[in-house]
Amino acid sequence: MDLLKSTRSISSIFHPPALVYHSRVAIAVSLSKKPINVRKCSGMCAASNSDTIVKSSEIISKKDEQHGDLKSWMEKNGLPPCKVMLKERRSHDSKHPPIHYVAASEDLQEGDVAFSVPNSLVVTLERVLGNETVAELLTTNKLSELACLALYLMYEKKQGKKSLWYPYIRELDRQRGRGQLAVESPLLWSEAELDYLTGSPTKAEILERAEGIKREYNELDTVWFMAGSLFQQYPYDIPTEAFPFEIFKQAFVAVQSCVVHLQKVSLARRFALVPLGPPLLSYRSNCKAMLTAVDGAVQLVIDRPYKAGEPIVVWS
User: What residues form DSSP beta bridges with 291?
Assistant: First the structure.
């Protein structure tokens, strides 16, 4: 699926899922890691008009694959030598492309640095807004960090292959917000699908979250205007006119599935989108390894040995 072929196309990652059997695992992907509040979980990328939605049955074209995979792009843009590679597993839905995941490229021992992604390849509010003071103001009074990240990536999506982040956005397109469990968020379920949760407190929580996303959406124009860097780059693209609410909601879920919460960093860097991070990493509750901010980079130090080819897991 050449999802980024046009600056007006919209990523398949933002399309409501087909009706499938949903286990408690599916609900857990979106709801188990409950944020501080609704405002602390927001969106990701899409392009503009609602009449150009790419069909979810399309797949990434071979021609697009030849543009280079995610790791190759990262290496060309400063990723130092690392000890991981990208592998793929089949999707349970034949309409969707295989899911990529990060695996050991060689035998590894506990304490090894699997990879170290330079800050130049990490998306944070520091990059989006260009001013930490503005970041603190916006996220304290108006919008959550993730909604700001969403807005930035939606604009980048519109640039298509001209965007530095094209290979990363394309990878998120492929993953469709499913994560390594290949399940989709109930935040994107139809009313008919939500009826399966009737009688469960989970349904009320989902509806409450959806209202929170709507409040985030209504503040996007304020963020665009206050954040000088965004306004200067896109002076004619008012967010709520460029990106319909349904697209933003789908974007919200996508970013929620891949954002990393960094510890011991400034407010403008605490939520980050890290290539080679989620959703390419598997989660495990008994794992102690986690993505950590170090001087000039975000790295992963593993907590167990791996054989070459084994998927890398992190703390959930």
Answer: 300
* Burial class of residue 248 (count of CB atoms within 10 Å of its CB; 0-12, 13-18, 19+): buried
| Separation between Cα atoms, residue 124 and residue 77, nearest integer Å | 17
Per residue in 118-164, pLDDT tens?
A: 999 999 988 887 766 666 666 666 677 888 888 888 888 888 999 99
The two tokens of residue 259 are 């954002």
Q: Using CA atoms, how far apart are residues 273 and 255, in angstroms rounded to an integer?
A: 8
**How far is residue 56 from each of residues 11, 94, 97, 114, 123, measured CA to CA in Å?**
9, 12, 11, 34, 26
Quick one: 35 exposed, middle or buried, by C-beta within 10 A (0-12, 13-18, 19+)? middle
DSSP H or E stretch at residue 38: none
* Phi and psi torsions of 286, nearest 5°: -95, 15
Which among 38, 12, 23 is positioned nearest to 217, based on CA atoms?
38
Q: Pick left, alpha or beta for residue 22 (phi over 0 → left; psi -120 to 50 → alpha; otherwise beta).
A: beta
What is the amino acid identity at position 235? P
Q: Is-above-0.70 flag for pTM?
A: yes
Query: Using an 8 Å Cβ cutoff, are 273 and 280 in contact?
Result: no
Task: Write out the DSSP string of 42-54.
Answer: ------S-GGGBP
> Which candidate, 248, 200, 217, places its Cα nearest to that of 43?
248
Is the CB of residue 205 less than 8 Å from the CB of residue 189? no
What distance lies between CA 71 and its chain's CA centroid? 16
How many whole angstroms separate alpha carbon 253 and alpha carbon 175? 12
